[in-house]
Amino acid sequence: MPATIDIQKFVTDIDLHRKRMQGTNRRFTGLDAGALAARLAVRRAGLPVAAPLPMITWQGWSSSTSAGGIIDYTVGIANPSASDEVCLFAHAFVGPANFIADPGMAVQAVDPRFPRLTEPAFAGLQIAAGATASLNFQLRVPSETEPSNYLGNTFLFRADWHDVGTYLDRGFWPFGVGGPQ
Q1: Which of 7, 76, 149, 169 is 20 to 30 A (C-alpha) from 14?
Q2: Distance between CA atoms of residues 54 and 84, nearest Å
Q3: Which residue in 108, 64, 109, 93 sits closest to 154, CA to CA?
Q4: Residue 34 to residue 101: CA distance in whole angstroms
C-alpha cells in the first residue's frame, strides 16, 4: 500500500456521513480503518488489484417504506489512487446479487419489478486522487410490492466508451416494504 494513501482522511469522511445519516428509519454501513487497509492491500472480490482503485466506503439508506413509496439511498465513493479517476458510474438495483461472486452474473440477478438506476449522467463521476464523493438514488418501490425485505445492490464501475468497462466494487443494502422491518 503506497504511503500516500491517507486512510484516516477516508475514515473521517465516513464518520461525518455516519453522523449526518443517523435517525429513525435510517441504516448506515461504513468501513473502519482496518477494513480500509485490508481493502487496499491485495485483492477485492476475488480479483487481483494492481493499484488502489476507487471503492465504496459507506452507504446510507431508508430502512423501510410502504408499497409505492421511495427508498432514499446514498453511496460514498473514495479514490485512494495516485491519479484522478473519471468516467465512474454506480448502478443500483434490487435482487439477490450479493452472494454471487462473479460481477457479470451478479448484475443479472435482478427483481424485475424494481427499476434499475445509474448515476451520474454523462460523462460520469470524476474524483480527484485521494478525494471522496457521493451519489444519491431515489428508488421507487412499485405499488404492488408485497410486504417483505428486499435486497438492494450497487455496482461501481469505470466506463470505457469503446470497449468493456472495469468493475471496481459493490455494495449491499437491505430494506423493508410494508412497515418497519
Answers
A1: 149
A2: 10
A3: 93
A4: 23
